[in-house]
Amino acid sequence: MNQKTDVIIIGAGPVGLFAVFELGLLSLKCHLIDNLDKIGGQCAELYPEKPIYDIPARHSITGQELTDELMKQAKPFDPTFHLNQQAEKIEKISDGWKLTTSSNQIIQAKCIVIAAGAGSFVPRKPPIENIDQYENKSVLYAIRNKSLLTGKKIIIAGGGDSALDWTNDLAATSEVTLIHRRKEFRAAPDSVAKMLELEKQGKIKFEIGQIHSLTDENGILSGVNIKNDSEIKLLKTDFLLPFFGLKMELGPVANWGLNLYENLIEVDTEKFETSIPSIFAIGDINFYPGKLKLILSGFHEAALMAQKCFNYCHPEKKNVFKYTTSSKDLHKKLGV
Ligand code: FAD
Q1: Which residue from 15, 33, 203, 294 could staple onto 198, CB 3.0 to 4.6 Å apart?
Q2: Which comes out higher in pLDDT, residue 45 or 79?
Q3: What Cα–Cα distance (Å) separates residue 252 from each residue in 10, 91, 248, 249?
Q4: In the chain, what are the domains?
Q5: How far is the CA of 325 from the centre of ligand 1 (A)?
Q6: pLDDT tens-digit series, residues 140-162
């Protein structure tokens, strides 16, 4: 079933979240799409614990605290989130846009706001030629349904937090082998200590090596050949979980016919509209002369974008600019 809203925001990073608030002040409703399983973009994914020092009026705030505060500010406007899916395709319709996500959700809106940062976060994949034929079946880059792995043979590859956390977590329910190119890890020291203890107790196995190739039986993954120096060893498995971190890709947005400048979307500086009317780009994803990739720049861009979105959504109405301090009844709407 098609869902309808005023504005679709692609990207639930700090700038997409603040856009909900700015659009909400003008009584515009939003749906947000993000291909991560959580909100907060780079702040929540890359540096949740790091303090940011240049958010106005905050002496210091961590990436996760900023995300939580922005969500608190957006919540009264009741945004709808579509997480774990990518904005894939857009189509012009008579009164706006129809957007299809990678989970086949269809959303219609008058305007689209691209707040996609440096692009979609996608997993770094091992360079194995035929790996795509097993992906989302027996090769998983994220665990969405843990019960699928119960009682199974699992190979986890990687030396960072995800690899170690999942090794420790699944040790009780699955037959886990962790593989990494050396016995040194980038994960939190207590996770490393726990994994080494599990290995000592024989509750998990550890092998030094890198994924060399995959084997299968009747099209179903049956093993992973790992390479250590010149030696190749076959490990039998039901699942392979490569956890090599995430990278960013502009993805499908690149094919929507927008004017681009070195993988960024060109916008004007009056309303942050792209070369296609009623499609806007704010935050790290946009380009204009003098652009600074700062969260506060994205906040300013969101405020100006919202004014123009209002004109597209309500061409018959005049938008009278108001301070939040003098907006009647706003405190009731915000619950403050
Ligand atoms: P992002 O935070 O990148 O969020 C974009 C979201 O869009 C992502 O979640 C992505 O998954 C999603 N997305 C993209 N394409 C699609 C698609 N097609 N479909 C669905 N979802 C999609 N800035 C400061 O101002 N001060 C600092 O001190 C500071 N420190 C930083 C420290 C580090 C380590 C890093 C990495 C960055 C730092 N930054 C800092 C930069 C700041 O994090 C970015 O400017 C900010 O995150 C940009 O916000 P955004 O909402 O535009 O994009």
Answers
A1: 203
A2: 79
A3: 12, 13, 12, 9
A4: 3-122+247-334 (3.50.50.60), 125-244 (3.50.50.60)
A5: 29
A6: 998 878 899 999 999 999 999 99
List pLDDT tens digits, range 96-120. Answer: 999 999 999 999 999 999 999 988 8
Contacts of residue 19, Cβ cutoff 8 Å, sequence gap at least 6: 7, 9, 30, 113, 115, 282, 302, 305, 306
Residue 119's alpha-carbon distances to 62, 102, 219, 249, in angstroms, are 22, 15, 33, 5
Give the confidence band of 30 by pLDDT, cuts at 50, 70, 90: very high
pTM of the prediction? 0.79
The reply to whether ligand 1 has any atom less than 6 angstroms from the CB of 138 is no
Q: Give the lowest-confidence range in 250-264, 266-280, 294-308, 322-336.
A: 322-336
Examine the pLDDT at 174 and tell me if it is beyond 70.
Answer: yes
Distance 121 CA to ligand 1 centre (A): 10
Rounded to an integer, what distance in angstroms lies between the CA atom of residue 88 and that of residue 102? 6
Query: Best of 42, 47, 83, 250 to mutate for ligand 1, by most ligand atoms within 8 A of CB?
Result: 42
Q: Is 114 in the pocket of ligand 1 (CB under 6 A)?
A: no
The pLDDT of residue 240 is above 90: yes
pLDDT of residue 1: 65
SS3 assignment, position 205: strand
Please, what's the largest Cα pairwise distance for the chain? 73
239 pairs with which residues across the strands?
A: 154
Q: By alpha-carbon position, which residue is closest to atom 30 of ligand 1?
A: 52
Q: Which atom of ligand 1 is nearest to the CA of 88?
A: 18
Question: Is 63 near ligand 1, meaning CB less than 6 Å away?
Answer: no
How many other CB atoms are there within 10 angstroms of residue 236's CB atom? 12
From the number of C-beta atoms within 10 Å of its C-beta (0-12, 13-18, 19+), residue 96 rates as: buried
Ligand 1 pocket, 14 CB below 6 A?
yes
Residue, of 328 and 284, whose pLDDT is higher: 284
